[in-house]
Design brief:
Elements (H helix, E strand, L loop, with lengths): L1 E8 L6 E8 L2 H17 L21 H5 L6 E6 L5 E5 L16 E3 L6 H8 L1 H15 L5 H17 L5 E6 L5 H13 L4 E4 L4 H11 L7 H10 L1
Helix pairs in contact: 4-5
Length: about 230
């Protein structure tokens, strides 16, 4: 509430009166709290999102190694290099390490539409087409958001279990940037990749990058010492 205070100044016949206006904002606190409460109840602050997780099989006849082993033809490893460079290889490094001597084993790509994205779409074309069809139905409101999430999750889970979908491991290097990691993850979403993981790079992968580029900065200190001894 507001009130006016009158203060007399001066003396004699010509007395001056000054009016001081004071506004009490205490009731506004209650009003602000009511407004905040109203908007909190009437506004969606965050839409929860979930990630589909495929758990290991419970088949007791399989060994631990067989339960976790990727089908090599569907395994793709993406290495994030320096200067916005990106490399990938399919399958696993050979046990005899002959992959290190094969210049075509590690392939260079880019973050352009005709680079990494084109390759991933080719490897995931069947699943991509099905999920895009579901997205179209969702946009036309033929199915709900919940139905879309449920159906895509079941499709991706089945494709992973049947080893028909690519299973991708993304490995940033010390020379890559945070933006490179974000760009690589964005490509997973664009290409509807259902199974991917962000992993720490190992010395085998850093050696592959060195053999491909000749850049010793990819190597660990231990690898650099071994390289100098070999020279």
């Amino acid at each position: 509430m507001s009130e006016i205070q009158v203060k007399e100044e001066g003396g004699g016949k010509n007395k001056q009166k000054k009016q001081q206006l004071r506004v009490d904002f205490t009731p506004m606190v209650d009003m602000n709290m009511l407004l905040i409460t109203f908007f909190m109840f009437c506004t969606t602050l965050l839409t929860p999102k979930t990630m589909n997780i495929t758990m290991p099989t419970k088949d007791d006849t399989l060994t631990d190694e067989e339960k976790t082993k990727f089908k090599e033809s569907m395994a793709i490893t993406i290495l994030l290099g320096a200067n916005d460079e990106v490399y990938y290889y399919t399958g696993m490094i050979a046990e005899d390490r002959s992959s290190y001597a094969d210049p075509d084993f590690l392939k260079q790509s880019s973050y352009d539409a005709d680079g990494l994205r084109k390759y991933l779409l080719e490897r995931n074309n069947e699943m991509y087409a099905v999920i895009q069809d579901l997205k179209t139905k969702k946009e036309k409101q033929q199915i709900t958001e919940a139905q879309y999430n449920l159906q895509t999750g079941e499709l991706q889970k089945k494709a992973i279990q049947d080893t028909k979908a690519p299973q991708i491991m993304i490995k940033p290097t010390d020379l890559s940037t945070y933006k490179n990691t974000v760009d690589a993850l964005d490509e997973m979403l664009v290409c509807n990749i259902g199974s991917y993981t962000l992993s720490e790079i190992n010395q085998g992968d850093t050696y592959l990058l060195y053999m491909k580029t000749g850049n010793t900065e990819y190597l660990s200190e231990e690898q650099k010492l071994e390289l100098n001894k070999a020279k």
